[in-house]
Amino acid sequence: MNHLKELESESIYIIREVAAQFERPALLFSGGKDSIVLTHLALKAFYPAKLPFPLLHIDTGHNFDETLQFRDELAKRIDARLIVGYVQQSIDEGKATEEKGINASRNVLQTVTLLDTIEKHKIDAAMGGGRRDEEKARAKERFFSHRDEFGQWDPKNQRPELWNILNGKKRMGEHFRVFPISNWTEMDIWQYILMENIPLPVLYFAHQREVFFRDGVWLAKMPVIQMKPGESSEEKIIRFRTIGDITCTGATISTASTVEDIILETAASRVTERGGRFDDKRSESAMEDRKREGYF
Amino acid sequence: MEGFSNKGYMNMSMLRFTTAGSVDDGKSTLIGRLLYDTKSIFEDQLEQVKHASIQKGAEHINLALLTDGLRAEREQGITIDVAYRYFATPNRKFIIADTPGHVQYTRNMVTGASTADAAIILVDVRKGITEQTCRHSYIASLLGIRHLIVCVNKMDLVSFDIEAFEKIKSLFQAFAKKIQAQELHFVPISALFGDNVVSLSENTPWYNGGTLIEILEKIPVNNFIANSGARFPIQYVIRPQSDDFHDYRAYAGRIASGTFSIGDTVMILPSGHKTNIKSISVYQENISSASFPLSVSISLDDDFDISRGDVMVKMDNPPLISQEITLMVSWMSEKPMKIGDKYILRQAARETKAIVKSINYVVDVNNLNQFERDHLQMNEIASISLKTTQPLVYDLYKENRITGSVILVNEGTFETAGAGMISA
Predict the structure, then answer these.
(1) Does residue B48 belong to the interface with chain A, where contact is any CB pair within 8 Å?
(2) What letter does residue B356 receive in the DSSP assignment?
(3) Could you say which of A5, A162, A183 has the minimum Cβ distance to residue B114?
(4) pTM of the entire predicted model
(5) B89 and B190, same structural domain?
(6) A240-285 residue pLDDT tens
(7) Is residue B162 part of a domain?
(8) Where is the domain boundary, B314, B344, B379?
(9) Is A241 on the interface with B (CB under 8 A)?
(10) Residue A109 pLDDT class (50, 70, 90 cuts)
(11) Closest partner residue to B238 among A2, A46, A159, by Cβ?
């Protein structure tokens, strides 16, 4: 068995455990490749039945149109229920405060909306496409990650996870985050997309776009990002290695227009995909801090 | 990744191994070396580590910072939890379960070892075989790891002396008889300078056992114990209830051991119903047979009332069924275990309740001595006997790692309190 088949089997096993152990699970769908692969694995886990849980998307209001279009088409094609939580609504209700300044982003605010949506829909397990190779705080994440009644992660007090036995027992008000593709690397994801011929949003492939350069990262010129005096935009052939909120998704100068091209580019790459994430550049433990609060 | 090709990637296997150690063992340096020399560290990660090293006033890059993920760990310079790391050679993907090594983290070592096919035992050539070596090796063998790779580290500090290496090798071989390790590998290395880690060292012309990475590439994957017959714990029942698949019913799960094929006569336990396999599928694809570790759905000629927790088996070499089991348990909870305590027990997909009938003996993991006590504390390992409210369908851990393992869950907090390997 090659390693992709083995990873697939492991992930399907974990997704089935979620359906078996929880009453109201949901799959966190961002429109990025990891959550698309996760959705594909979930389809495999329950075929020929439909997904026994909804897709849940937290919309920052700063998404690429292509992402939202892809999301809606996918949900329709697989006949899945789609729940959307809006960051704008959290701001309007005074639960979240818009960041100010040049690097303002709604990325952090997503946590408020996410926890709110989880509570509103009484979701007891939220599955996400997080991978342990992405970032060092994530390297310590469990498959079944326990969250207290405030939605917080306590990395020093995690449940040990042995063999393939997953403990999803919880008290009232607590919930779980589940990461079925924890053991996949960025390369595994791309190889699997190729092997399974999984459709992706066009943003992942080379296209022409107006971009500007800030702190080592190319960002898309969009109304939601304020440019500093002195910054100027130009047309470039780029693609995105990760897709998230527009304000913190860095582009890569690339002409890779097929999955095969992307794989070769990924193999030659000397920078991690999160190297293009503006949100991780905030501090050495930026991810750990966000995760503790209840981030994805 | 050197020598990368798309085609080659489709033929890669996957090996999981564990390491245990504390900062001064050079464990972080060794992992850093494996990641660095296989080109699995990216520029921005290295940049981050460089930056952090300079900030702490270090003279050179501290590779340990690459592996310590939590802020508390970086501040205190210790490893607290199990971290998983990934690297690949053109032939194989590796998953490292990287664990701390002190006795107060025994539970983390057990966790890391529970999914591993091999364990790296780090020995400082100047210190020789220590309590820590004993502890790490014992835990690896207790968890059924067949391949122990003894890395005799810091060889540069003894001028790559063959005598020093051979002495440790023979002492370890003698010690290993006590822990039933099956395959031993010995490598003289310097993690700091990279000797015999990924590239063969010129400093050890007397050594011809291959580099650490060569050994890791040759160890059979998924080699752990599965001498029992075919086992398929039922995880989930798929019933689409749609017009297209009106009467469809299939049993979903991951094959724990052996091979199941269409037409095989199988028995459902504990009910004892017998029937034949009608079809096996992975998504839309029908396959004629399936083996560990594939996740599949299986449909049967006859439909009985089968649900999560039942086990499908082939009748040659049947499993054990009992409400009384004896197991080696690693205690993971701050709340001690006492005779008479009740826990939720999870084994395969089954959940039941269990009461502690006896604590047979406690093992001192530093020297393997056994002693008697009426309770068990966190990080201790002991032989205990349990009685369950429902019968368990199981194998001995030494015969089957999946159907022979259990966890004990605290009834109040629901934390995972203990991990057990069934021994009788």
Answers:
(1) yes
(2) E
(3) A162
(4) 0.92
(5) yes
(6) 988 877 877 888 899 999 999 998 888 777 666 656 555 555 555 6
(7) yes
(8) B314
(9) no
(10) confident
(11) A46
